Amino acid sequence: MVGVVLLGAVAGAFEPVVVPALALAGLAVVAVAWRTDDPRAVDEPAWRRALAIRAVTVAVGPFVLLLPWSLELFAADGPLRGVESEVVVAPLWQWLSLTVDLAGLPLPVGFAFVLAGLLGLVLGVPRRPGLVAVLWAVALTGAIAAWLSGRTGAVIWAGLPLMLTALAFAGLLALAFATAEAQLTRHAFGWRQLAALTTGLAVAAGLGVVASELARGPWQAYAVGRTPLPAFVMAADAEEGPFRVLVLADTGDDVRWEVVDGAGPTMAAYGVADADVAANLAGPVVEATLGGADPAAARRLGPLNVRYVFVPPGGDSERLDLLLRAQLGIEPRPIADGRLFAVPNWLPRAGVVTGVGAEALMAGELPVGTGVRPLAPTPDVGFVGAADAGALVVVSEQDDPGWDATQDGQALPWAGDGDGPLVVFAGRDERGRVEVAHLGDRARGLAVAGQVLALLIVVSLALRPPRFARRRPDGPDPSTSPPGAPARTPEVVG
Amino acid sequence: MNRRRSWIVLAISALVVLGVVGADRLVDLPEAASATVAPVAGEAVSGAYTCATGDRREGSELDLVAARPGDAGEDPAAVDLAVFGDGDIARSPQPSVFPGAHVRATPSGGTDLAAFVPWSGGPVAVTREWRLADVEDTPSGTLAGPCHSRLSNRWVVPGMSTDEGNEARIRAVNPFPTDATIAIGFLTPQGPQEPLALQNLTVPAYGSYEVTVNDAMPEQADLTALVRVLSGRAVAEGYLLTRSAIGGVDGVSLLESTTGPSETWTVPWLSGRDGDASWLWVANLGQRPAPVEITLHTADGGAPPVGLSDVTVAPGQVRRVDLRGTFPEGVSAAAVSVRSDGAPVHVSGAVRRSADDPARTGFSVQRGVPAADASWVVSGGPTAGRSDRVEVVNPGSDAVAFSVVLFNGSTVLRPSEFADLEIGPGQTRSLPLRDVLGDVPGWSAHVVADGGIVAGRVGAAGEGSLHLLAHAGVPSAAWSPVDAPLPVTAEPGVVQRLDTLGGIREPDPLQPPEDEPEPAAD
Question: What is the DSSP letter of B171?
Fold first, then answer.
């Protein structure tokens, strides 16, 4: 049960809809079991109680494990309602036949599954018409759910409900195997047997093709063939960072972009949108930069702690190069592959700036004589360092009221308008020690620590060590397990 | 299974199949999410002009005129003037420029200076005028023309000479904080040449690099310079000094550069009067021969040059097209348009004025204009003792109505004789400024039309040194967006997928780059 909770949490982390789906499934199990009378149960109330506890644990466990993230599950900008997945517009028959153009879904697998479904239909209907109808209904439900999800592009990945369809077809294949002998031996050898043989071979061939494709690759899709950023950029991040890198890639249809750390992206961050930096801060600047009408737009990358603009090989194009070269705020750097532009006026993630006003700073202007001194990061996601008299304390993060800055223990006033992309505080007219912290980060740190502890407990319960078997007295087992569940057997016998 | 049940199964299956196939017909297709596209702006919201040629060496004067096109009520433009050289840059904000007005600046400094003029808030057109009067070892003359509003990694100076007392110089400037590297090659009537001494030249950050072309390519009557920016960014153009001690003509002229080839070019003014020699330089950096069709535009309309047969420019060559004797009877000046279908070229025009008195001689080279435009800004410096005029050409096939609004440094003028004018297809129109402006330290003319025209400036001093100059104005294309906006899509994870099948497309190694041929090594 604990293992199911753990797996549910992992699945919910990847596909948030799993969390409410598990909760609903748990409630459904409890409701159905509560209305079911089982004459075999010795202690019916105790059995029902145990079942309810298990179902509720499985249903609620992932939600608890994923706190506090799961609290925002249904928020307007949360992981369910706020994230839009890719719109896949394909006719319903393609979804039902599993031949839709979806990443990770090879074409032969669709034909193999459909043939399996048809085989199950033909061979299974005479013997188990109810089961065939249920399996086909599940297949249709999964396909329709995927079809709707693909068209709306919201809530869940369209491939997820398609798994129901695949499972139903697999069940139909199993049913076909189970009923084939009895069904086919009723008739003399003829077209029925040949058709069944041909279809069965086609299913086997289709599955064989899929297996061979999986064995053959594409392993390249999982291999990192080269460093994602130029080596000297990542080395500079270690020495002078942290800083950010804006990566642009022209696909021919549009320009894909992402902001990553100068140390290079990590797989831990794969698919995780940095909403603050990517959407709120860099997005408008990227649009203006590639809009062609504002050659000074890229200057605004500097205050966002973006030090380089990188176009990887294969992502460059003449039109992208033309627009980037027209930008006055970035400097081309010669590299072997791709294109690299430096942002001369980049600011550290947090720093003390003298000689410039807040408004000019947010516009990306660093006049001659501007002094920039970075602040050192602290373990609790804060920054600390010395400040000059009359300096501005700037943090290249999303501006929100959670940020707080003090100089020698006294709170610093805001210098920005509180609505911009840059946290700016006006320093005092004397030198001192500045500390910057985000108040929400400490509470979040505590919550994360608690979750890590809970996760460790759950993992330890799921992987509990084997126990020695104990002899049980003869007689009926006063089991509280649900009907049909096998009695517990010792994991290891002496 | 009995027959009835079979029919039920078949019927249900048929209904399911129909539902599956017809579902997409019953439900409307959703609109696919599209990438974010910045709105197409008619005018750029910021930009910068770079003036590579023109400095404040002793005995010379440099005027920079930043004119704000537009109508009253629009936002003023904010203009900065940055003068750089020797690795330093000095910025001096200028007053706000209101629509219809201009701001005039006279940078100070020495010989290796250039100007960088960033603007925002509203478009401006920047023109420079460099007057050389008493400069040692330099003939008297005035060098004027628009500054560059675009950045490119390839600059082409279509025409220049290094014979008969001509001294051509190319100056590359770098208004950015990173060093740039350039290489200079040439096209001659015999083909391309790349002197080894002019490869891998460093243009320092906030600095300039000047090359005397005569040192590398002496005694060449027809040359085209190709400046390639190998790293960093640089702006290149040239100027021509003509000394009467050798060729009998004194003069200086700006050698404006182009950034890309075109199939159409218009030169606003060429002279056909006695004593003047006019010609075109047509450079073909492409891979195919360029058949060139020339049209002379006069006040009566367009016509082919008299007695000039078809001209073809071989690939990798520059050709001089002499226009002496090709003007219609009684016509002393004309505009010229060049068309080379299917083989884009670079074009400039030259006028060499000879006289008994060397002081009344002059030399002017005009870079052609690749496209007609509906809005132009033409600016100039002091008018005292000069006769300047605005030349308007209609290279199109439809009549165009236009008006000219002047600014004399303090007042916006709307002379009635410059309002509601019309110019027929192929015609030219000359608008003298002397009577309208009087003696002013600087002026701007805003030419607004309801169709495509080309506007330029022609002028000379009435007494003393001729100071002949002719150049095209600044079209609205100079303050228009660089290119169509690219749709952008945020895609977290795109970096992790680099070099994978799920990543971005890889370049096709078999696909040759669409580029012009490089001049062969010398």
Answer: E
Cβ pair B482:A260 closer than 8 A:
no
CA B280 to each of CA A112, B158, B354, B363: distance values in angstroms, whole numbers, following the listed order? 72, 9, 18, 13
Q: What is the sign of the dihedral through the CA atoms of B280, B281, B287 and B289?
A: positive
Residue A244 and residue A209 share a domain: no
Sorted by where each begins, the domain ranges of chain B are: 46-479
Q: Is residue A456 part of a domain?
A: no
Q: Cα–Cα distance between A385 and B44 in angstroms, integer? A: 41
Global pTM value: 0.72
- Is A253 in Cβ contact with B504 (below 8 Å)? no
Last residue of a domain, one of A426, A441, A456: A441
Could you say which residues from 401 to 460 on chain A have a Cβ atom under 8 Å away from some Cβ of chain B?
none
- Its ipTM equals 0.79
What pLDDT, in 10s, does the model give residues A164-182? 888 888 888 888 888 888 8
Q: Are residues A360 and A292 part of one domain? A: no
Contact list in B for residue A153 (CB cut-off 8 A) is: 30, 33
Q: Are residues A213 and A128 in the same domain?
A: yes
Classify residue A449: in a domain, yes or no.
no
Is residue B492 within 8 A of residue B165, CB to CB? The reply is: no
| The two structure tokens encoding residue A170 | 């697999």
Task: Output the six-digit token pair for B258.
Answer: 């182009």
> Could you tell me if A150 and A214 lie in one domain?
yes
In a domain, A99, yes or no: no
Are A332 and A354 found together in one domain?
no
Number of domains in chain A: 4
Of A253, A320, A331, the CB nearest to B176: A331
Distance from CA of A41 to the nearest CA of B (A): 38
Domain that holds residue A324: 231-342
Q: Is residue A95 part of a domain?
A: no
| b/e per residue A202-226 (b: at least 16 CB within 10 A) | bbeebbebbeeeeeeeeeeeeeeee
Q: Which residue of A has its CA nearest to B500?
A: A221
A483 Cβ partners below 8 Å, 6+ apart?
A38, A40, A41, A47
Low-confidence residues in chain A, pLDDT < 50: 220-221, 479-480, 484-485, 487-494
Which residues in chain A have Cβ-Cβ distances shorter than 8 Å to B176?
Answer: 328, 331
Same domain for A53 and A148, yes or no, is no
Q: Confidence band (pLDDT; 50, 70, 90) for B514?
A: very low
CB-based contacts of B416, cutoff 8 Å, min separation 6: none
Across the interface, of A89, A255, A264, the residue whose CB is closest to B488 is A255
> Does A421 lie in the same domain as A378?
yes
